[in-house]
Amino acid sequence: MIHIYGEKMFIFSGQIDLRKESPRLLKTPINAYLPFGMGPRNCVGSNFATIEVKLAFSMILQRYAFTLSPSYFTTHPQHGVQIVLHAL
């Protein structure tokens, strides 16, 4: 069997340091976790994806009415806001 990633691919050698001041994380580029990148060479599909999300959200707003759940009413929700969808 040919191992593309090596025979010990699932064996981790070392510890992961996830502190903010970790030297490994300080070398990470600022835009490393943006889904479409940034700058002049960003993803060509980012505008299309943004329009698709707006279109999907507008279709949901046209077909449903939203009300807050009466069982979970607070000014500082800790686990998100619970809403009830009513078909129009």
Structural commentary:
The chain has 88 residues and is α+β, with helices and mostly antiparallel strands. The model has no long low-confidence stretch (mean pLDDT 77). The chain has a two-stranded antiparallel sheet with strand order 1-2. The protein has one domain. The chain contains two helices and two strands; from the N terminus they run H-H-E-E.
Low-pLDDT stretches are none
Number of strands: 2
* Strand portion: 5-15%
Tally of separate helices: 2
Class derived from helix and strand content: alpha+beta
Structural domain count:
1
Overall geometry: extended
- The strand line-up of the biggest sheet is 1-2
Estimate the helix proportion, in percent.
25-40%
Distance between the termini: 59 Å
Please give the radius of gyration in angstroms.
22 Å
The assembly state of the depicted protein chains is single chain
Please summarize the sheet with the most strands.
2 strands, antiparallel
Mean residue pLDDT: 77
Order of helices and strands: HHEE
Q: What keywords describe this structure?
A:
88 residues; alpha+beta; two-stranded antiparallel ribbon; 2 strands
Summary of the model, kept short:
The chain has 88 residues and is of the alpha+beta class.
Topology (SSEs and partners):
Elements: H1 23-26, H2 46-63, E1 64-68, E2 83-87
Pfam families: p450
Subcellular location: Membrane
Keywords: Heme, Iron, Membrane, Metal-binding, Monooxygenase, Oxidoreductase, Transmembrane, Transmembrane helix
